[in-house]
TrEMBL record:
<dbReference type="InterPro" id="IPR013736">
    <property type="entry name" value="Xaa-Pro_dipept_C"/>
</dbReference>
<dbReference type="InterPro" id="IPR003593">
    <property type="entry name" value="AAA+_ATPase"/>
</dbReference>
<dbReference type="InterPro" id="IPR017871">
    <property type="entry name" value="ABC_transporter-like_CS"/>
</dbReference>
<dbReference type="InterPro" id="IPR027417">
    <property type="entry name" value="P-loop_NTPase"/>
</dbReference>
<feature type="domain" description="ABC transporter">
    <location>
        <begin position="662"/>
        <end position="890"/>
    </location>
</feature>
<keyword id="KW-0813">Transport</keyword>
<keyword id="KW-0472">Membrane</keyword>
<keyword id="KW-1133">Transmembrane helix</keyword>
<protein>
    <submittedName>
        <fullName>Alpha/beta fold hydrolase</fullName>
    </submittedName>
</protein>
<dbReference type="Pfam" id="PF08530">
    <property type="entry name" value="PepX_C"/>
</dbReference>
<feature type="transmembrane region" description="Helical">
    <location>
        <begin position="623"/>
        <end position="644"/>
    </location>
</feature>
<dbReference type="Pfam" id="PF00005">
    <property type="entry name" value="ABC_tran"/>
</dbReference>
<dbReference type="InterPro" id="IPR003439">
    <property type="entry name" value="ABC_transporter-like_ATP-bd"/>
</dbReference>
<feature type="signal peptide">
    <location>
        <begin position="1"/>
        <end position="31"/>
    </location>
</feature>
<dbReference type="Pfam" id="PF02129">
    <property type="entry name" value="Peptidase_S15"/>
</dbReference>
<keyword id="KW-0547">Nucleotide-binding</keyword>
<dbReference type="InterPro" id="IPR008979">
    <property type="entry name" value="Galactose-bd-like_sf"/>
</dbReference>
Length: 958
């Protein structure tokens, strides 16, 4: 019952991001050698909820005592050991630092309550009680030590909730943490929110879109205790592959050993309380926010109690964080500052998706220490330092992608005197950017697959790994663009825009994101961040859509001059729970509403901008010089590649391109591991031909088709379509239609509706679809207007063929078009392809049904092991052996044998199949003429071998 070690290794990649947070993201400052530690097990809770917390106390040099105290909490999945370096650094600075493993974690007993005020927050008060009894800790009153609390993520929420419930806490520094777990795991960015702060996003009300990947990761970390695995595994007593050991109460383990149901619950829920476990199971299985789930998440959220926090608060949040975005810190700042509590907000280029760089982590550690120096030390203490103020700091916006480093601002920070809109401050300035685009259909596939891929939890934006380009699925998104910018736009916070939506069901699940599109078409998704939209009560009539205000993710990004801001609204995202039912939405832009004296105008994207003073970190100028050199070299390389690409693209256009729709010239595709999928492949296809591409599995057929369609690039050689190079995105590929890997039809729509929707998704004019002509060529008849779910497999295939024929492409590429059809349907499909080629167009068919290739195709290319082994007409391939089957009357058989054997090199004789003649090098027409001239009636004179025989012989010879 022990999980595979590979799963633990994968989890280990993500654990440091969850555990360490900000403070432990870099090597600690040099701590004093005389820092001492004391280990203790601290009791907390009572009755059935009683636990022992495993703690370590770090004490500074004796001459610095008594000293203020800091409770340092760890991130989720960690323990007191996760923050040991930071604790030692703070102790070296003159603080008494208490670290501990939260209940249910590390050496502490109990079960995880998810920062439940009854459990973990009460535990924090028990720790403060211990500090209140120590003479080496500064005391403000009897039982009231001078204490600050800091922590990241799980530990950051503990600091916020602790300050709300325990008035003895004097200052807090929470980092990359949440305001509302409900809004974090069930986000919904719809609705209007007028706060004046730059990163405010609407809170979840009745429901949202379940953030399933992040939730699954959290639950997976907490649901497999090491000692439980050891009890049912190899008994080594430790976590597999170095995972953190976790202790469960002995009584629970004893119950598990005796009770199968208890065992199952422990294996399912691990360290979590039954209440938290049940909430996750409900959310994971339904994707819905039930009142019971909301109650648990709200109870563990600072949202409901931030107005109680009187402790000065330093909020540190990351711009690379798909778990707890900048909007969570924005909401905390608003709630805490509302009653006059001092609040400072710091954003940094990092977060749960990308830890801070070493230098930046050092700066953030100084921010935290400086905050505590001012609010925990006495006014006459020379170590107190300058007042940190209540301003706002954020990384200088740039248009650089994450592939050039995590620190987006290149080490530069913008400092503003106040956080805009906070506690009476002026609201954030906003810039209106017009965007435009037509009303567009957006499809949700059944089961939500395939889905767009933007963010991988803990690994940053997937876009960063691909140079900034996320994976959007055609037909599943609507796009709206600004004009190329005439001046840079530095977005600092969350932009807003109004959409016009309709849905046949009256509701929709969508995902909005703001791309940066360079002049060359390169798309970058800042931070890989997405705004989920759970839209209800919308119009069912596309002609009368509902206006819906949405808030995009809060980002820090510079859109450069000449770039385009592209709003994309998609129906899927891999990181979220998606509707199981297929659906079609209508998505457009809502025009700006009319005002007094002014008519309704173009849709405006409202982007927040924040002014401030730019400061460079120590040594940053050297990095800027290095960055400038790298960019200069990159620019030269880009110009060279652009010149060479244009030279190749413009300089080589084959003059016979219209007569030769497809040409492979010495094409090779090799991969980095040395595998060569296609080797030196050359052939051409002429107008009006139906070419069959044949070969066993692994022959390279699919790779060849993918290169033809511009999906992958060849390593060597050239593929031309109508004389132009077939590169990804090449305009000439618009003359190509294809059908591969399933029909992808929506079952609740009719065939005609599917075809119209598919064409609309291409963005091309409706009159260019030639819908009726494609339908006529495919021969679908009246069945086209019935729902696809009532179609047979053959009818679905024919709709898919018609879909590929939309626009009447000059080159049609089909992969297994007769797959699953019965003989009559195969015969009909054969006629469809022949008639299509008869119009002067060209068809390429890849298939394993050799008999159908023989009857459908005019020409064949046979491949094996990545190479072409034969090419020619079907007749040439089949007749290569020179054997023919001769049909004559029984009385004429002997005379026919004699006539044939008079020809040089010909042998003939009777077989079970009839009279067979091996012609050798004699042409078939000469042998047939000899029989006719002798007055022998010939009923049949055909090659004896079938295409299958020839294929097997050729592949065997290869």
């Amino acid at each position: 019952m022990r999980p595979r070690s590979g799963a633990w290794r994968a989890l280990a990649v993500l654990l440091p991001l969850l555990v360490a947070g900000v403070l432990s993201g870099a090597a600690p400052a040099a701590a004093a050698d005389d820092v001492r530690t004391e280990e203790a097990r601290i009791p907390a809770g009572s009755g059935a909820d009683a636990v022992e917390l495993d703690s370590t106390l770090y004490l500074p040099a004796a001459e610095e005592l008594p000293a203020p105290a800091v409770v340092l909490a760890h991130g989720f999945g960690g323990s007191k050991d996760s923050v040991a370096d930071d604790a030692r650094a703070l102790a070296g600075r003159g603080y008494v630092v208490l670290t501990f493993s939260a209940r249910g974690v590390g050496g502490s007993t109990g079960q995880i309550g998810l920062n439940d005020p009854r459990f973990e927050i009460a535990d924090l008060s028990a720790l403060i009680d211990v500090l209140a009894e120590r003479d080496d800790v500064v005391q403000d009153a009897d039982g009231d030590p001078r204490v600050g609390v800091a922590g990241a993520s799980y530990g950051g929420a503990l600091a916020l909730l602790g300050a709300a419930y325990d008035e003895r806490i004097d200052a807090i520094a929470p980092q990359i943490t949440w305001h509302s777990l409900t809004s974090a795991f069930f986000p919904d960015h719809t609705g209007d929110l007028d706060t004046g702060t730059p990163a405010a996003v609407p809170p979840t009300s009745d429901g949202g879109v379940f953030k399933s990947l992040w939730a699954g990761l959290f639950f997976g970390i907490g649901s497999a205790p090491a000692d439980l695995l050891a009890a049912f595994g190899d008994g080594d007593g430790g976590a597999p592959d170095g995972g953190m050991p976790v202790a469960l109460p002995d009584e629970l383990l004893a119950q598990a050993a005796e009770n199968p149901e208890a065992t199952e619950r422990l294996l399912t829920c691990g360290r979590f309380t039954a209440e938290v476990c049940a909430a996750y199971q409900t959310a994971a299985s339904t994707g819905e926010l039930t009142p019971e789930v909301a109650a648990i998440l709200d109870r563990s959220s600072p949202a409901a109690v931030v107005d109680r926090i009187d402790a000065p608060t330093l909020l540190i949040q990351g711009t690379q964080d798909s778990l707890f975005g900048l909007g969570q810190a924005d909401a905390n700042a608003r709630g805490i500052a509302a009653d006059g509590t001092p609040v400072k907000v710091v954003w940094f280029a990092g977060g749960h998706d990308a830890p801070a760089s070493g230098g930046q982590a050092d700066e953030l550690r100084e921010e935290v220490a400086g905050w505590f120096d001012w609010y925990l030390r006495s006014a006459d203490d020379p170590s107190r330092g300058p007042e940190p103020g209540t301003g706002f700091e954020f990384p200088a916006p740039t248009g650089l992608g994450a592939t050039l480093g995590r620190v987006q601002g290149g080490g530069r920070t913008v400092v503003a005197p106040v956080y805009p809109g906070l506690d009476g401050a002026e609201p954030a300035e906003r810039r209106a950017v017009p965007v435009e685009g037509p009303l567009q259909p957006v499809v949700t596939p059944a089961g939500g697959t395939p889905a767009a891929l933007t963010t991988v939890p803990g690994l940053g934006s997937f876009a960063a790994a691909l140079g900034g380009a996320a994976v959007e699925i055609p037909g599943q998104f609507a796009a709206f663009d600004s004009e190329p910018l005439d001046a840079p736009v530095e977005v600092v916070g969350a932009s807003t825009v109004d959409l016009a939506l309709s849905s046949a069901s009256g509701s929709a699940t969508l995902f909005a994101k703001l791309y940066d599109v360079a002049p060359d078409g390169t798309m970058t998704l800042p931070g890989g961040l997405v705004a989920p939209l759970e839209v209800t009560d919308v119009s069912t009539d596309p002609t009368d859509p509902t206006r819906v205000g949405i808030t995009l993710p809060a980002i820090v990004h510079r859109f450069e001059t000449g770039h385009t801001m592209r709003l994309v609204v998609s129906s899927t995202d891999q990181a979220y729970a998606l509707p199981a039912e297929a659906a079609v939405y209508s998505v457009g832009l809502a025009a700006a509403e009319a005002t007094d004296g002014a008519a309704a105008g173009a849709t405006q994207l409202s982007a927040p901008v924040v002014d401030g003073r730019s400061e460079a970190a120590a040594g940053a100028s050297r990095w800027w010089l290095l960055l400038a050199a790298v960019l200069g070299l990159g620019l030269l390389g880009w110009l060279a590649s652009l010149w060479w690409g244009r030279r190749r693209q413009v300089g080589v256009v084959e003059p016979d391109g219209e007569d030769v729709p497809l040409r492979f010239e010495g094409v090779t595709k090799a991969y980095k591991d040395g595998f060569v999928a296609v080797r030196d492949l050359s052939f051409e296809v002429r107008r009006g031909q139906v070419l069959g591409l044949l070969g066993p599995n692994g022959a390279g057929k699919t790779t060849s088709l993918r290169m033809l369609m511009g999906l992958i690039r060849p390593t060597e050689g050239r593929i031309s379509v109508f004389g132009h190079a077939a590169r990804p995105g090449a305009p000439v590929l618009s003359r190509l239609g294809s059908f591969v890997e399933g029909t992808g039809l929506l079952p609740h729509l009719s065939g005609r509706q599917n075809l119209r929707l598919y064409w609309a998704a291409t963005g091309r004019p409706a009159e260019d679809a030639h819908l009726e002509e494609a339908i006529e060529v495919a021969g679908l008849g009246a069945a086209l207007d019935r729902p696809v779910r009532r179609y047979s497999q053959g009818m679905r295939q024919r709709v898919a063929i018609a879909q590929a024929m939309l626009g009447l492409p000059d080159l049609l590429v089909l992969d297994e078009p007769t797959n699953g059809l019965d003989p009559p349907q195969i015969h009909a499909m054969r006629e469809v392809l022949r008639s299509y080629a008869a119009t002067g167009r060209t068809v390429i068919v890849s298939s394993h049904l050799l008999s159908e290739i023989e009857q459908t195709c005019s020409h064949v290319v046979v491949m094996a092991k990545g190479q072409k082994i034969a090419q020619g007409t079907v007749e040439e391939i089949v007749g290569a052996g020179g054997a023919v089957l001769v049909g004559v009357a029984e009385a004429d058989t002997d005379r026919a044998i004699a006539v044939l054997e008079e020809l040089p090199g010909v042998t003939a004789g009777r077989t079970d199949d009839g009279l067979v003649a091996e012609l050798g090098g004699v042409p078939r027409d000469r042998a047939l003429r000899a029989l006719v001239e002798e007055g022998i009636a010939v009923d049949q004179f055909t090659p004896r071998r079938r295409l299958e025989d020839a294929f097997l012989a050729l592949v065997g010879e290869s």
